[in-house]
């Protein structure tokens, strides 16, 4: 650990701010919600200045719960689960739930400085999280958390420098964040061109063929078999085991990718009852639930032995008629999505049934052209994948850059120290003495009030 910079003092978060947390009004009372009081939850945190809450409570809900109203410029930090360490400055007067720790900084530091400091310490808070799968940090952990505090004037220099540097990082991040959407549109445009015949137009000209060779054919006619997974009593939650034969569930079926990381098992004995649901190499899996895009993918035997679960349709292509990859790409294209979305429009959980999927028609070219289509798609997708990797690498570098800049700031290396600055120790000492004096006055007033109440009670009895 580097040496404490001159003029700085080692202290705790509890000494530089008044810390508290909020609460949740009873959900059973509808009058407690949809009022005028912004109610912050951990999912709202992360932006520098929080301007609005995702949910509001009423004044009645505020009074009848442990929720509290915090002043503008308070600093909130997430204390629970995967959001631990997410931080925002409240740019509004707002209440929070109990998962948010909230600081009202004293005169030893500013809200923006505390915001940056908490961001810098995010990994430290995560490391102190307790509770297993969903670790939490408590008010006690936060208050006892050690920090290095610079002089007030140096804090101003640090925050000004951070504002300037990180604004440039944020602009770069904003430009990078556009890339996933651009890549998604590119891939969809490739699929649209491929399944309409546009992508292989030149290929047909060279081969002396026309688009007339493309014919609409149903999935049922293209497949040797299309089947849903077992449902109801045939496969219950109680049938799942810690190991054995794997089950392909909705969470495994992505858009053009099989997500093998999430595993669910059944026993060998149960598998024998459901063996007809075994998924084979190059089967096309299709999620019956249709939301923002079609989720369909190829199954690879390298994943191991799997059966499919209900709502995970399995199409076994007739390879003499259709390439499994071509079928997958045809089902994944935007045209297919738009047609199916119309079919399920208005459903609470939009999905299609197997009968509809089997009747669905795709445009089918010759086997030779299917191979040409798949080859061109894969070539273009390979280029998109390379761009995506470059994007992910650049994003990771930017994330590391932000953290390295913050770390440098809070080691005292970002701006020079000024010997004319009042040392932070003197400032903090004054503040703590003032806090102690105020607390003693409050305690004395409380005792006096209590004595008067007792005397009044005795007088009434007399």
TrEMBL record:
A Pfam short name: Methylase_S
One GO MF term attached to the UniProt entry: DNA binding
Family: Belongs to the type-I restriction system S methylase family.
Keywords assigned: Coiled coil, DNA-binding, Restriction system
CDD domains assigned to the protein according to its UniProt record, in alphabetical order: RMtype1_S_MjaORF132P_Sau1132ORF3780P-TRD1-CR1_like (cd17515)
Name of the protein in question: Type I restriction modification DNA specificity domain-containing protein
Coiled coil: 377-404
Stretches assigned to the Type I restriction modification DNA specificity domain: 5-179, 212-390
Record flagged with keyword Mitochondrion: no
InterPro entries assigned to the protein according to its UniProt record, in alphabetical order: Restrct_endonuc_typeI_TRD, Restrct_endonuc_typeI_TRD_sf, Type-I_RE_S_subunit
Location of the region described as Disordered in the Swiss-Prot/TrEMBL record: 439-462
Source superkingdom: Bacteria
Gene3D superfamilies cross-referenced by the UniProt entry: DNA methylase specificity domains
């Amino acid at each position: 650990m580097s040496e404490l910079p001159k003029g700085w003092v080692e202290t705790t978060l509890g000494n530089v701010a008044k810390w508290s947390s909020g609460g949740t009004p009873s959900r059973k009372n509808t009058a407690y919600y949809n009022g005028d009081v912004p109610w912050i939850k951990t999912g709202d945190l992360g932006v520098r200045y929080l301007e609005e809450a995702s949910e509001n409570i009423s004044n009645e809900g505020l009074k009848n719960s442990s929720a509290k109203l915090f002043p503008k410029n308070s600093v909130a930090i997430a204390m629970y689960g995967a959001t631990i360490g997410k931080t925002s400055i409240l740019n509004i007067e707002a209440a929070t739930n109990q998962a948010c720790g909230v600081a009202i900084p004293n005169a030893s530091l500013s809200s923006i400085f505390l915001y940056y400091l908490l961001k810098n310490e995010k990994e430290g808070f995560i490391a102190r999280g307790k509770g297993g799968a969903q670790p939490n940090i408590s008010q006690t952990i936060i208050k006892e958390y050690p920090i290095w505090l610079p002089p007030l004037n140096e804090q101003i220099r640090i925050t000004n420098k951070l504002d300037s540097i990180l604004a440039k990082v944020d602009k770069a991040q904003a430009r990078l964040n556009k890339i996933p959407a651009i890549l998604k549109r590119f891939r969809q445009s490739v699929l649209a061109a491929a399944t309409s015949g546009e992508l292989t137009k030149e290929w047909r000209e060279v081969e002396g063929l026309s688009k007339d060779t493309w014919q609409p054919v149903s999935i049922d006619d293209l497949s040797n078999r299309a089947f849903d997974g077992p449902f109801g009593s045939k496969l219950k939650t109680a049938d799942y085991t810690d190991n054995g034969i794997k089950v392909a569930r909705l969470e495994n079926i992505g858009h053009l990718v099989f997500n093998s990381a999430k595993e669910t098992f059944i026993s060998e004995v149960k598998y024998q009852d459901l063996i007809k649901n075994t998924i084979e190499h190059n089967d096309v899996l299709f999620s019956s639930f249709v939301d923002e895009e079609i989720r369909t993918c190829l199954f690879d035997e390298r994943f191991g032995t799997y059966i499919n679960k209900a709502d995970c349709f399995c199409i076994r292509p007739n390879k003499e008629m259709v390439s499994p990859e071509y079928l997958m790409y045809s089902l994944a294209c935007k045209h297919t999505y738009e047609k199916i979305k119309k079919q399920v429009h208005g459903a609470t959980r939009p999905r299609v049934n197997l009968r509809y999927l089997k009747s669905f028609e795709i445009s089918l070219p010759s086997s030779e052209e299917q191979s040409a289509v798949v080859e061109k798609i894969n070539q273009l997708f390979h280029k998109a994948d390379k761009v995506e990797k470059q994007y992910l690498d650049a994003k990771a570098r930017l994330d590391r850059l932000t953290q390295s800049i913050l770390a440098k700031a809070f080691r005292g290396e970002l701006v020079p120290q000024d010997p004319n600055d009042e040392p932070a120790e003197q400032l903090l000492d004054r503040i703590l003495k003032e806090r102690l004096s105020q607390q003693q006055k409050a305690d004395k007033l409380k005792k006096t009030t209590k004595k008067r109440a007792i005397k009044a009670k005795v007088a009434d009895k007399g």
